[in-house]
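Input.
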Amino acid sequence: MKLKLTLVALLATLNLYALTVGETPKEVSISGDNGGMVADGSEWNSKSIKDKVYVMFYVDPDEKDVNEHFSQALKKKNYREKGDFGSIAIINLAATWKPNFIIEKILKSKQKEFPTTIYVKDKNSVLVKEWEVADDASDILIFDKSGKLLFYKSGKMEDTDIQKAFSLIEANL
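Output.
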């Protein structure tokens, strides 16, 4: 019986840090040796996920095209014009064999091309460790205006996933 209780307590403790739809994830920051904002190198903090409905792309550079169809469909929705909407792209630099300086150069040009998107470099898979998002993948997360996680998908977004994502965004704008 003691073994069962210990196992249950251990599993509950391990799950405290995992993402749970319907809850606000624990606070995480990315700065210094771990990375930071592409625009100016400053710290990115998950506390900034508030006051808007945010779609976050957490992407291994080798998987950047996996959800391009969702990204293009999202742009066509023009959510920024309809309400408080924002987008965050966090690049998991630790997940690729490609040199960081090349990816960082690409990210700087992306930040100039899409100035309203928040671009973040994650050099040490911080969100993989802290939020237990999938590593070496293309992850999509949607947050409401209070920072609560509404949706999480790792891997390719199917049509049903896309429709669910759009419904959640529209219901929370």
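The beta strands are 29-30, 35-37, 44-45, 53-59, 85-92, 117-122, 138-143, 149-154.
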